[in-house]
Model the fold of this input.
Amino acid sequence: MSKFEARDYADIVRRPIVTEKAVRLLENNQYTFEVMPKATKPEIKAAIESLFSVKVTGISTQRPPRKQRRVGRFVGHRAQCKRAIVTLAEGDSITLFPEV
Done:
């Protein structure tokens, strides 16, 4: 299927994204994650299902444009990232905010 092994799934998913839009999507059982830029949809699906023990029904990915950053007179770009909006099956959920 791919070059990723089961032990590499934790490296595919970098972190959950918590923005206003991402919190609104939680009502539709959709979760937003930052993933590796080279990860494909089947790899993302396998990683989410194995890490969180849930059933994924759909994935949307997007690569936002790179933003230009400047340090003094030197101009560069931010690191490229990729977002994945993951839709889970009914009854499944991921705890992003654990109770303390």
About this structure: The mean pLDDT is 90. Residues 41 and 59 are 7 Å apart (CA to CA). Helices lie at 9-12, 20-25, 41-52.
